[in-house]
Amino acid sequence: MIASTYTKTAPANILLVEDNPGDVRLIQEALRDEKDHIHLHVVTDGPDAIDFLYQRNDHENAPRPNLVLLDLNLPSLNGETILETIKSDPDLRKIPVVILTSSQANDDIEKSYQLHANAYLIKPVDPNAFMNAIQRLHRFWIDTAHLA
After folding, report:
1. CB 68 within 8 A of CB 98
2. How would you label 80-90 residue by residue, b for 16+ Cβ within 10 Å and e otherwise?
3. Residue ranges per domain, the chain?
4. Could you tell me the CA-to-CA distances from 15 to 39, 106, 121 in Å, in that order?
5. Cα(130)–Cα(104) distance, integer angstroms
6. pTM for the predicted model, two decimal places
7. Alpha helices per DSSP H over 35-88
8. What are residue 15's DSSP bridge partners?
9. Neighbours of 103 (CB within 10 A)
10. Under the phi-then-psi rule, with left for phi > 0, alpha for psi from -120 to 50, and beta for the rest, what region is 4?
11. By the 8 A CB rule, do 19 and 71 touch?
């Protein structure tokens, strides 16, 4: 696994695992002004996310993400399985994973934290509130927190 290259002066690599094109577009728009500070990589299903993380198949040259934004409801392989894979691998477990989902189910929230999610963010329905939440998430995880 490639070591992280993130510093406060180099762009952060964010892996977005999201199958909803509308949500992807809103996240890209919310982070548009940060394109010099982040590289947003998008995959739309679980197997593609695992390939990105392990630099396999079409993602042999993928950078190690500094942050993963993970939807729970994905085709082929759900977000819980991806989260469990990340947090059980010694090379990946220190990557912060933020669950970004529409699920408000207490079972989903509790299970995500049991699997060591770093945060659980319920997607706001209003597009402006959604973009604002993404910008706040960015300010904390990229501008404020110190990432490995």
Report:
1. yes
2. bbbbebbbeee
3. 12-144
4. 9, 25, 16
5. 15
6. 0.91
7. 46-53, 79-88
8. 41, 68
9. 17
10. beta
11. yes
Tokens of 73: 């409801």
Q: Long-range CB contacts (< 8 A, 24+ apart) of 80-84? A: 80/111, 80/112, 80/115, 81/46, 82/17, 82/46, 82/49, 82/50, 83/112, 83/115, 83/116, 83/117, 84/115
Domain 12-144: give its CATH code.
Answer: 3.40.50.2300
Q: How would you list the strands of the sheet with 67-70, edge to edge?
A: 38-43, 12-17, 67-70, 97-101, 119-122
Q: What is the 3-state secondary structure of 94-148? A: CCCEEEEECCCCHHHHHHHHHCCCCEEEECCCCHHHHHHHHHHHHHHHHHHCCCC
Residue 136 token pair: 């706040």
Per-residue model confidence as pLDDT tens for the chain (148 residues): 434 444 456 889 999 999 999 999 999 999 998 888 899 999 999 999 999 999 999 999 999 999 999 999 998 899 999 999 999 999 999 999 999 999 999 999 999 999 999 999 999 999 999 999 999 999 999 889 887 6
Q: Would you call 26 helix, strand, or coil by DSSP?
A: helix
